[in-house]
């Protein structure tokens, strides 16, 4: 009847009509992330604002790719005649493999697509590389940077160059249009955290003698 009270809305409809503050904030941050990442993708294509710098950005991309690092580390491990150097290189190899596995797992779980302005001309990709979150290059850059600074004796200028390399590799991911900014930021945090795991699980002749017997 006309005098009857209106039936209450279902709970899910109330949620849609009254979105939470957290939901609004996250949606706003996502929109800002997508907008800013597209604006910063100045090397995403040859016709982009900085399209002429795209070849250089792609060289930087290769410098942070997993395959050159894995092959270089494995080669150094096979050629090294120092037990201390072998220990460091073996743990670097472990760190790189851990990085690949963790990034692949997170990408497979999140399944965030690459930015729409990205050109799929990346250097050697696998199935999960069609996803964007997190940036494997940024994760690797942070991990390798911490590892090198901790375990190699370098002069101050070289230490600065290592940090600059990690930053440039990370920034280049957004400039090339490969990733959004949040992909890169989370990648850097993940790489920083993974180094702590490597230190905690450090491989040495005392803990895994069979592994070192191979060399």
TrEMBL record:
Domain Phosphatidic acid phosphatase type 2/haloperoxidase as annotated: residue spans: 88-199
Cellular localization per UniProt: Endoplasmic reticulum membrane; Nucleus inner membrane
Membrane-spanning parts: 89-110, 152-172, 192-214
Membrane topology label: Multi-pass membrane protein
Catalytic activity: (2E,6E)-farnesyl diphosphate + H2O = (2E,6E)-farnesyl phosphate + phosphate + H(+); (2E,6E)-farnesyl phosphate + H2O = (2E,6E)-farnesol + phosphate; (2E)-geranyl diphosphate + H2O = (2E)-geranyl phosphate + phosphate + H(+); presqualene phosphate + H2O = presqualene alcohol + phosphate
Keywords: Endoplasmic reticulum, Hydrolase, Lipid metabolism, Membrane, Nucleus, Transmembrane, Transmembrane helix
GO CC field: endoplasmic reticulum membrane; nuclear inner membrane
Family affiliation: Belongs to the PA-phosphatase related phosphoesterase family.
Protein's name in the database: Polyisoprenoid diphosphate/phosphate phosphohydrolase PLPP6
Source organism per UniProt: Pardalotus punctatus
């Amino acid at each position: 009847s006309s005098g009857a009270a209106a039936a209450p809305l279902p709970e899910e409809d109330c949620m849609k009509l009254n979105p939470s503050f957290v939901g609004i904030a996250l949606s706003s941050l996502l929109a800002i992330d997508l907008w800013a990442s597209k604006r910063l993708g100045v090397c995403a294509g040859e016709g982009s604002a900085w399209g002429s710098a795209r070849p250089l950005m792609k060289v930087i991309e290769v410098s942070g790719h997993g395959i050159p690092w894995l092959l270089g580390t494995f080669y150094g491990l096979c050629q090294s005649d120092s037990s201390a150097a072998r220990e460091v290189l073996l743990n670097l190899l472990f760190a790189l493999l851990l990085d690949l596995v963790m990034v692949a797992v997170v990408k497979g779980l999140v399944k965030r697509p690459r930015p729409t302005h990205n050109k799929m001309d990346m250097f050697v990709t696998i199935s999960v590389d069609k996803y964007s979150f997190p940036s494997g290059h940024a994760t690797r850059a942070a991990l390798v940077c911490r590892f090198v600074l901790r375990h190699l004796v370098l002069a101050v200028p070289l230490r600065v160059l290592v940090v600059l390399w990690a930053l440039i590799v990370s920034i280049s991911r957004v400039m090339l249009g490969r990733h959004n900014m949040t992909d890169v930021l989370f990648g850097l945090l993940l790489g920083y955290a993974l180094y702590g795991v490597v230190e905690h699980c450090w491989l040495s002749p005392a803990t895994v003698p069979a592994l070192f017997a191979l060399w």
